[in-house]
Amino acid sequence: PSDAEWTQLTDYVSTHSEYVCGGNYINIAKAMVSTVGWDLSSAAVPCLAGNDSPATNNATGFGALPAGYGDNEYTNEFTFGGLGYYTTFWTSTIAEVSYDPVYYRTFHFNLAEILRNYDYGYGSAKSVRCIHD
């Protein structure tokens, strides 16, 4: 999906009270992560993707898995990490900044919101979510 399609999805989820955690419209990650695989957060905050109440995970049916990342940007070897802690999804949209990076979205076990950022993609691996138009 494009960055605009991700925004459409997160905007939709954040406007439905059954998916929002703690009454804060940005706290939607928990409703979009899978019920398995996420490490437990040590913070006693119920809205975090990795808290200890997985029954509230995946209310939307999106089911983001904590797939981690791959990277060889700073080394000669491809490394893999973050399994259980977070997942990032590429978008198909090039950011409007220098050097043509691509936007991505991140779900993190210790956060209640979904992050949006960009990456140049050189030597990094992120998950891809396919959609049917």
Question: What does this molecule look like?
Answer:
The protein has 133 residues and is an alpha+beta fold. It is built from two helices and six strands, in the order H-H-E-E-E-E-E-E. It has helices at 3-14, 29-32; strands spanning 69-71, 79-81, 86-94, 102-108, 115-119, 124-125. The strands form two sheets. The protein has a three-stranded antiparallel sheet, with no helix packed on it. The protein is globular, with a radius of gyration of 15 Å. The model has no long low-confidence stretch (mean pLDDT 86).
Describe how the helices and strands are arranged.
Blueprint: H1 3-14, H2 29-32, E1 69-71, E2 79-81, E3 86-94, E4 102-108, E5 115-119, E6 124-125
Antiparallel strand pairs: 1-2, 1-6, 3-4, 4-5
What's this, in brief?
The chain is of the alpha+beta class.
Q: Determine the N-to-C terminus distance.
A: 10 Å
Beta-strand fraction estimate: 15-25%
Q: Which strand order does the major sheet show?
A: 2-1-6
DSSP summary, beta strand count: 6
Q: What is the 3D shape?
A: globular
Number of helices: 2
Radius of gyration: 15 Å
Mean pLDDT, rounded to whole units? 86
Q: Unreliable segments (pLDDT under 50, ≥5 consecutive)?
A: none
- In N-to-C order, the SSE pattern is HHEEEEEE
Could you describe the largest sheet, including whether it forms a barrel?
A: 3 strands, antiparallel
Helix content: 10-25%
Structural class: alpha+beta
